Amino acid sequence: LDFGGQYNQLIARRVRECNVYCEVKPNTMTVDEIRAFDPIGIIFTGGPQSVYAEGSPQVDPEIFRLGIPILGICYGCQLMAQYLGGEVTAAGKDTAREYGKTQTWFDTDCRLFRGLPEQSITWMSHGDYMAKVPDSFRLVAHSDACPTVGICDEARGFYGVQFHPEVNHTEYGQAMLRNFLYEVCGATGDWTMGDFMRKSIEDIRAKVGDGKVLLALSGGVDSSVAAALLAEAVGNQLTCIFVDHGLLRKNEGDEVEAAFQNWDINFVRVNAEERFLTRLKDVSDPETKRKIIGEEFIRVFEEEGKKIGSVDYLAQGTIYPDVIESGTNVAAVIKSHHNVGGLPDFVDFKEIIEPLRL
């Protein structure tokens, strides 16, 4: 569950590297929606706010009665502690506030740390700390500055850490995540990217049927992978539109066109340099530029779709970091990606398909 931390997509990546499928969902996901999703475990991500602050992202408290293991990371740890009877407060400058690489000690009887060294480096980034842990929890990790670095209630499968196991700076972070997935949640580890590809192709075919798809193709890795996936799924129902908007490197448009000449796909190049540069004239704010570019892309795709005739679906190579950069309901905008935050309010297609978004 996403509480606005900028490492969130990295958590998903680390889980998938353990051959376990996961999805990042908003913190507002209801208990009924969670039941329908039927996860074997839940991870609460970090976040930039304080759990005790007015308007900070919260969670449905019924989630703690579902009988599903939960791992709270940083903000997620503090949130769990607060809901279950603990106390979270601001750390003083010279007390429990921590940032950066930190020597940390562990109780390796805890399943989260089983098989790992009793002492190692973790990556901290917190200005709040748990002044009191919930009664049913025991302390399982500490540092010189903070006595409440790790907590657990193993009977309920609840674990919380103040550090970030998902980043490489935490020496045994991946092993800790693996312990949570396998030792606590009982994961089988049978998911691979091949499974993702097969499911994506099945989902695309089920959604599109005999309809036509227009793919926004930049020639980069993301949209090229999306092109290959869509071509496998719907074949000649796909048309790839490459828009040369005048903002590419010298000869890059020609290189993209040459790269796709040998692909068995419908490829269309649109030379739209003049219209893009005209719209961007005298605009200096980067965020405004991104939104203009996003809108102009859509208008070009709509025009090209009409030439093809009755195109129902616009496809994009959006990946999850694009979504993170553009901000979620609880995260700050880093920069709007033209595939996400840069899209106009009205898009004249039946639906947008983003097979790589998760």
Tags for this entry?
7-stranded mixed beta sheet, 2 domains, 14 strands, Rossmann fold, alpha/beta, 358 residues, 5-stranded parallel beta sheet, elongated, single chain
Structure, described:
The protein is an alpha/beta fold and 358 residues long. The protein folds into 2 domains: 8-184, Class I glutamine amidotransferase (GATase) domain (Rossmann fold); 193-353, Rossmann fold, CATH 3.40.50. 32% of the residues lie in helices and 20% in strands. It is built from 10 helices and 14 strands. The protein has helices spanning 8-17, 31-37, 75-83, 173-184, 193-208, 221-234, 252-259, 273-280, 286-308, 320-325, and strands at 42-44, 70-73, 87-90, 98-106, 119-126, 128-132, 138-143, 150-153, 158-161, 213-216, 238-244, 266-271, 313-315, 351-353. A 7-stranded mixed β-sheet has the order 1-2-9-8-7-4-5, with helices on one face. A 5-stranded parallel β-sheet has the order 12-11-10-13-14, with helices on both faces. Strand 7 and strand 8 form a beta hairpin. Helix 5 packs across helix 6. The longest helix is centred in the C-terminal third of the chain and has 23 residues, at 286-308. It is elongated, with a radius of gyration of 23 Å. It starts with 7 loop residues before the first helix and ends in a 5-residue tail after the last strand. Mean pLDDT is 89; it is low at 334-342. InterPro entries: Class_I_gatase-like, GATASE, GMP_synth_GATase, GMPS_ATP_PPase_dom, NAD/GMP_synthase, Rossmann-like_a/b/a_fold. GO terms for molecular function: ATP binding; GMP synthase activity; transferase activity. Keywords: ATP-binding, Glutamine amidotransferase, GMP biosynthesis, Ligase, Nucleotide-binding, Purine biosynthesis, Transferase. Pfam families: GATase, NAD_synthase. This is Bifunctional GMP synthase/glutamine amidotransferase protein.
